[in-house]
Amino acid sequence: MPSAFWGKFLEPHRLRRETGGSMAKHPFHDVAIVGVHNTQQARMLEGHDSRSITLEAGLGAVADAGLTPLDIDGVVGVHGADFIYQARIGPVWRSMSQLGIPALLEASAAIATGLASVVLVSAGSAGIYTERTSTAPWTRPTNEFVVSYGMFTAAEFALIARRHMHMHGTKPEALAHVAATIRNNGHVNPEAVYFGRGPFTAQDVLDSRMVADPYHLLDCAMTAEGGCALVLARADIAKDLAKDPVYVLGGNTDHYGPSYQHPPAFELGGRRDPKFINGYAGRRASQMAFAMAGCAPTDVDVCEFYDPFSFEIIRQFEAFGFCGEGEGGDFVMDGTIEIDGRFPITTDGGLMSFSHGGATVQLLQRVIRATQQVRGECATQQVPDVEIALASGGGAGALFNDVMLLGASQA
Amino acid sequence: MTQLIPQTGNIPRPFASIVSQPYWDACARGELMFQRCAACNGITHTPAVMCAHCSARDLAWERAAGTGAVYSWTTVWRPQTPDFTVPYTAVVIDMDEGWQMLSNLIGCEHDAATIGMRVAVEFHPITDGVMLPYFRPVA
């Protein structure tokens, strides 16, 4: 059931009614995802550096679409320039965008506005986590207000989770149930880094060693290496390619500032509207995405939520309006999030079990899995008849949360 | 049970920016400072160019009482780098003047932190003699 909050704010087609039904469809609806690819993911990838694995990922996504590099006229990503040069496809449009869903939305905008027609978005990471006695380099920025206090991502996110537990009585068992559910999705996925490592019970999670209270080891994402890429295309082009197009229905991003530099507070932000505090990062973005798509949380068939830490799934269910504030802990315990539940989560094993392929790779991988779910091609944990998938990236501990809605049909 | 103490290893030290230099200079004197806006009287932390409440650029440094209450906490067992001794407890403090800062808790057991616990600042030298604000429970 949508919360009372959603009832007021997010009836389907609300925006269209307000404009007398005359609002043109959103320009994103002329864009589809036509190719996706994950390279091999591993704790450590031998024989690769970040550039080589990114380029391999890009070629894989282009091939998945049934295209060749010469069909690409726009490139997004850290090593995008290398792809342009090595494949000798210049001149093309290029964006410097680096991160996950924002990069995909920028690609969508470029296509919708005619700057490009077929855009490659890629990311990759290998060989950058070498000091294994420290936490991964992307988890511990050297900012002056956090570095001497031993902060890294798990501690930042723990401070947010603690507030929710304090305010709403959210229990460690609920966090552990989320982690076990996601890890069991990865346990059966042969492509997951932690394939076959389970199955896990919530008690296994609670019994694992503490990393940053309330987060045990198994409440936390892994670190890994890998590459991934997506190809987006204008809808008329997308119709004739190798795979069924997966349409962009909507999306947006909520950012509150630089990650891991300032005290991570639940109540940060909200100066323009107290509903949109950092603790509910992603609320504004998801409301705008649902409005673009003309649908509501109850229309979502699969929730490919970003899972850096177990509580973040609970938080996102509340932020995105699947349940009310403070209800997320109970919401996830009702059989809702399992693969045969009403809102299956993070079906490939996510950042906890499939891969956290580096600093930004995993920020695209929720969208890749959402695409595969909509296509109906997941070898494991395929949810039947997926029409609409919601993917996300980021989290309140990092002061951002991005969302993207994908559909089997054009909105 | 482990008593929480200031870090003694060669932990990463903070490097001040142009804007934050007065904050760290004050720490070296054993004083905790925040910025207050002349236009709206609001308090801003971490050190900034503009007021967090009204965006005015008229911020002046003011000495904090150094007391507050724990807003959130986490006790860390997997250190950021091996230079840190575990466990350590990261805290966000609600300062009495109405601002928040991040720090570490000392002077109590590793599992003693609670939300609302009253704390007061004290300074301890870390790497390169930098004086770092820590917080200790007080009655």
From TrEMBL, chain A:
GO terms for molecular function: acyltransferase activity, transferring groups other than amino-acyl groups. CDD domains: SCP-x_thiolase (cd00829). Pfam families: Thiolase_C_1. InterPro entries: Thiolase, Thiolase-like, Thiolase_C_2. SUPFAM superfamilies: Thiolase-like. Residues 281-407 form the Thiolase C-terminal domain. PANTHER family: ACETYL-COA C-ACETYLTRANSFERASE (PTHR42870), NON-SPECIFIC LIPID-TRANSFER PROTEIN-LIKE 2 (PTHR42870:SF1). This is Unannotated protein.
From TrEMBL, chain B:
It holds the Pfam family zf-ChsH2. Residues 24-59 form the ChsH2 rubredoxin-like zinc ribbon domain. InterPro entries: ChsH2_C, ChsH2_Znr, NA-bd_OB-fold, Thioester_dehydratase-like. Residues 61-124 form the ChsH2 C-terminal OB-fold domain. This is Unannotated protein. It comes from freshwater metagenome.
